[in-house]
Amino acid sequence: MSEVNKSIVRRFMDAVINRGDLGAVDELLAPDCLDHVAEVLGLPAGREGAKRLYALLHAGFPDLEVTVEDCVAEGECVAVRSRWRGTHRGDFLGVAPTGEEVRLESLELLRLRHGRIVERWGAADARTLLRRLSSPGGPGSARPP
């Protein structure tokens, strides 16, 4: 079951994040899922919030790409460490495009049931990203050491 759950999470990240396929949200997230990352940003916690979150990300970073570095599963939970990269070419949560490349690392924990994601937590901090994009040092400060 753990390997199946890891493959579902990888499919989600590839389809929704790398390819911008928001239709895959309906396939891979349970109807009553809780996306705590969307919730923190004031978006609905369910599928609709997830779609809005990824639409915002792709509007701000049209070339958004995530690379999974580590993926570990136990039971119904999958933990993922990933690297995100994108060029800030559109408005993102009120910050005008800078044209700069941004790189972030993310930690996520996803819980699955019956082949769908039912809950998601993430440690990539959008508020920190916004501060970095709008700071005098700009996106260069968003790059990991």
Describe this entry's structure for a reader:
The radius of gyration is 15 Å and the shape is globular. Strands 1-5-4-3-2 form a five-stranded mixed beta sheet. The protein has five helices and five strands; from the N terminus they run ααβααββββα. The chain has 145 residues and is of the alpha+beta class. The protein has one domain (2-140): Roll (Nuclear Transport Factor 2, Chain: A).
What topology emerges from the helices and strands here?
Blueprint: H1 2-18, H2 23-28, E1 29-35, H3 36-40, H4 47-60, E2 65-74, E3 77-87, E4 101-113, E5 116-122, H5 126-134
Parallel strand pairs: 1-5
Antiparallel strand pairs: 2-3, 3-4, 4-5
Largest β-sheet summary: 5 strands, mixed
* Number of helical elements: 5
Which secondary-structure class do the elements indicate? alpha+beta
Classify the helix fraction into a percent range: 25-40%
Number of domains: 1
Reported by name, the CATH topology is: Nuclear Transport Factor 2, Chain: A
Structure summary, number of beta strands: 5
Q: Give the strand line-up of the largest sheet.
A: 1-5-4-3-2
Give the class-level CATH name: Alpha Beta
Average residue-wise pLDDT: 88
**Whole-angstrom Rg:** 15 Å
Which architecture would the CATH scheme give at its second level? Roll
Ranges with pLDDT <50 over ≥5 residues?
Answer: 139-145
User: What is the rounded distance between the termini?
Assistant: 36 Å
Q: In what range is the share of β-strand residues?
A: 25-35%
Order of helical and strand elements = HHEHHEEEEH
Principal-axis shape: globular
Organism: Calidithermus terrae
GO biological process, one term: polyketide metabolic process
Protein name: Ester cyclase
